[in-house]
Inverse folding.
C-alpha cells in the first residue's frame, strides 16, 4: 500500500510547497517563495517517474498532479511576479497579466488530460517549466526591466497554450532499486535551495530557458519548412536559415 502511495506523496509534497510559496509571498518573502516553487519542480519531476517505476500509475494520481501543478506552477509564480514587479504597473494591467499566466496554465493542463498527444512530446510548454522560468526571472527582477518581465510572462503564457512540441523525456526513468533514494535527493535539494538560493536559481534558469526557447525555435523551423515546401525548397535550405536563430 505504501509503495503504491509513494508517487502521490511526491505530488502532495509538490502541492504543499506551492501553498507554502503563496503564504511566503503574503509574508513578503518572494525570494524564498520562488525557491519553494523550484523545489516543487523536483517533486513534480519525480512523481510520474516513481509511479512508472513502481507500476503505480492511476487516474487519481494524474488528476491530483494536474490540480497540484495549477497551484505550484501557475498561481504561486504569478503571485510572486506580481509582488516583485507588477505592482509598479497600472492596477488593472497588473491584475490581467497576473491572471493570464495561471489561466493559460490551467488550460494547458486541461488539454493535456483530455487530448492524446504525440508520443515523446508535450503539446505546449509544460506548466512546471513555465512556472520555473517565471520564478527565476522573479529572483532577478532587480536586474530586469518591468516591461521585459511583463513580455516574458505573456510569452510563457502563450507557449503553454500553443501547439509547439516539447520533448517530454519520459523515457528517462528511475530504476526501481533506486526509488527509496529519491526522498534523500529531495532533502538534499531543499537544503541546497535554502542555503544557496542564488546559485541554484542560476543553475535552473539556463536549462529551463533553453528548453522554452527550443520549442519556439522548432516551431519557427516548422513554419519556415511549410513555407519553403510550397516554394519548392528543401529542408536543408530551411535548416541553414534557422541555424542563426
Amino acid at each position: 500500500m505504501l509503495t503504491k502511495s509513494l508517487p502521490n506523496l511526491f505530488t502532495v509534497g509538490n502541492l504543499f510547497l506551492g501553498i507554502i510559496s503563496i503564504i511566503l509571498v503574503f509574508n513578503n518573502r518572494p525570494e524564498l517563495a520562488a525557491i519553494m516553487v523550484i523545489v516543487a519542480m523536483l517533486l513534480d519531476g519525480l512523481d510520474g517517474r516513481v509511479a512508472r517505476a513502481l507500476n503505480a500509475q492511476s487516474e487519481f494520481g494524474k488528476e491530483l498532479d494536474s490540480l497540484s501543478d495549477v497551484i505550484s506552477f501557475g498561481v504561486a509564480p504569478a503571485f510572486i511576479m506580481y509582488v516583485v514587479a507588477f505592482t509598479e504597473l497600472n492596477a488593472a494591467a497588473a491584475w490581467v497579466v497576473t491572471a493570464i499566466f495561471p489561466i493559460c496554465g490551467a488550460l494547458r493542463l486541461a488539454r493535456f488530460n483530455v487530448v492524446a498527444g504525440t508520443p515523446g512530446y508535450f503539446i505546449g510548454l509544460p506548466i512546471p517549466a513555465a512556472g520555473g522560468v517565471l520564478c527565476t526571472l522573479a529572483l532577478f527582477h532587480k536586474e530586469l526591466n518591468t516591461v521585459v518581465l511583463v513580455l516574458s510572462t505573456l510569452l510563457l503564457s502563450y507557449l503553454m497554450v500553443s501547439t509547439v512540441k516539447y520533448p517530454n523525456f519520459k523515457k528517462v526513468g528511475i530504476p526501481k532499486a533506486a526509488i527509496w533514494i529519491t526522498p534523500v535527493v529531495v532533502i538534499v535539494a531543499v537544503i541546497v535551495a535554502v542555503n544557496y538560493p542564488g546559485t541554484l536559481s542560476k543553475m535552473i534558469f539556463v536549462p529551463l530557458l533553453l528548453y522554452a526557447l527550443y520549442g519556439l525555435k522548432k516551431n519557427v523551423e516548422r513554419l519556415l519548412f511549410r513555407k519553403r515546401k510550397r516554394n519548392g525548397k528543401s529542408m536543408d535550405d530551411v535548416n541553414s536559415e534557422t541555424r542563426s536563430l
Summary: The chain has a mean pLDDT of 82. Residues 2-217 form a domain with the Four Helix Bundle (Hemerythrin (Met), subunit A) fold (CATH 1.20.120.1760). The chain has one domain: 2-217. The chain has nine helices and two strands.
